[in-house]
Write a structure and sequence with these properties.
By secondary structure, this protein is of the alpha+beta class. About 25% of the residues lie in helices and about 25% in strands. It has one domain: Creatine Amidinohydrolase (Alpha-Beta Complex), CATH 3.90.230. The structure holds 2-amino-4-trifluoromethylsulfanyl-butyric acid and cobalt (II) ion (CO) (2 copies).
C-alpha cells in the first residue's frame, strides 16, 4: 500500500465526483423529517445518483475483506449509531440526529461526504455535539497544507473534542480516496502534532471525525456493519474530501447547500 499523488486529470474527476456527492446531500435535505424511514432516504438517494446524476453509489455491494457486501446505497447513522448505519424500516422521529454519508463514483473516481441533520427539534445536548463535531472537522481541515503532518489534523480534532467534554472514536478514520473508495493513508482523528505522514501536494483524503457525547468505545451490531456507541451515548460525524495544495487545501465536496466553515477558520488559497 502506498499513498498515490493524483494527476491534474484525476483531480478534475475527483472534483466532479465530490460535487455530485455533496449535491446528493442537498437533494435529500428536505426529506429528512419526522416519519420518513431511513430506507426511504436510501431509495431516494439511490435513484437520484443512478437516474439523475448517472453515477454509481459506492457503498452498494461494497465488500472490504472481512465484511459481507454492504446492502444499501448510503449510510444512515441515527443517534447512538456512530457510522455505517444500514438504512431500513426505522422511522425518524422528532429530536433524532442522523448522519447521512454519501459516496459517489463518477468516471471511475470517488467523492465522499457526510453531514448531520436534526430531525424536527433536537435537544440542546444533541445540537451541541453536532456543532462541536462540525468545528472538529474544520479545525482538522485547516491544518492541511504540503509539509504539515497527519498528526496535526488528529491533534486539532482531538483537542477540541475533549476540551468540549466529548470523546473521539479510534477504530474508524478518514482515508485516502481516488480510484479506490478506501486508500492509504489512514487519517486518524486523534494524535500528536508533528507526527505521522508528511502531506504532499496532490494527495487526496477524507477527514471524517466521529465524536461521542459519552465514552469513545464502540461495538458492531449483528448486521455486520452498523457501529454504535457501547454506552449508547449520542455520536456525530461530518466528512469532506480534501485535496492537499502547496499553500493549503481545496475541499472537493462543496455544493450550493454545503454549510460554510465556522467564521474563525482562516480561508486558504
Ligand atoms: N462512506 C464511509 C466512509 O466515509 C464508508 C462507508 S462503507 C459502507 O468511509 F460500505 F458502509 F458504505
Ligand atoms: Co470516508
Ligand atoms: Co463517507
Amino acid at each position: 500500500m502506498s499513498i498515490t499523488l493524483k494527476s491534474p486529470d484525476e483531480i478534475e474527476k475527483m472534483r466532479v465526483a465530490g460535487l455530485l456527492a455533496a449535491e446528493v446531500l442537498d437533494y435529500i435535505t428536505p426529506f429528512v423529517k419526522p416519519g420518513v424511514t431511513t430506507g426511504e432516504l436510501d431509495k431516494l438517494c439511490h435513484d437520484y445518483m443512478v437516474d439523475i446524476q448517472g453515477c454509481i453509489p459506492a457503498p452498494l455491494d461494497y465488500a472490504p475483506s472481512g465484511y459481507k457486501p454492504y446492502p444499501k446505497s448510503i449510510c444512515t447513522s441515527v443517534n447512538h449509531q456512530v457510522c455505517h448505519g444500514v438504512p431500513g424500516e426505522k422511522q425518524l422521529k422528532n429530536g433524532d440526529i442522523v448522519n447521512l454519508d454519501i459516496t459517489t463514483i463518477k468516471a471511475g473516481y470517488h467523492g465522499d461526504t457526510s453531514r448531520m441533520f436534526h430531525v424536527g427539534e433536537a435537544s440542546i445536548q444533541a445540537k451541541r455535539l453536532c456543532e462541536v463535531t462540525f468545528e472538529c472537522l474544520w479545525l482538522g481541515i485547516a491544518q492541511v497544507r504540503a509539509g504539515a503532518h497527519l498528526g496535526d489534523i488528529g491533534n486539532a480534532i482531538q483537542r477540541h473534542a475533549e476540551k468540549s467534554g466529548f470523546s473521539v472514536v479510534r477504530e474508524f478514520c478518514g482515508h485516502g480516496i481516488g480510484a479506490k473508495f478506501h486508500e492509504d493513508p489512514q487519517v486518524v482523528h486523534y494524535g500528536k502534532a508533528g507526527t505521522g505522514v508528511k502531506l504532499e501536494a496532490n494527495m487526496i483524503f477524507t477527514i471524517e471525525p466521529m465524536i461521542n457525547a459519552g465514552k469513545a468505545a464502540i461495538r458492531e451490531l449483528a448486521d455486520g456493519w452498523t457501529i454504535v456507541t457501547k454506552d449508547h451515548s449520542l455520536s456525530a460525524q461530518w466528512e469532506h474530501t480534501i485535496l492537499v495544495t502547496e499553500t493549503g487545501y481545496e475541499v472537493l465536496t462543496l455544493s450550493d447547500g454545503t454549510r460554510k466553515p465556522p467564521e474563525w477558520i482562516k480561508s486558504c488559497s
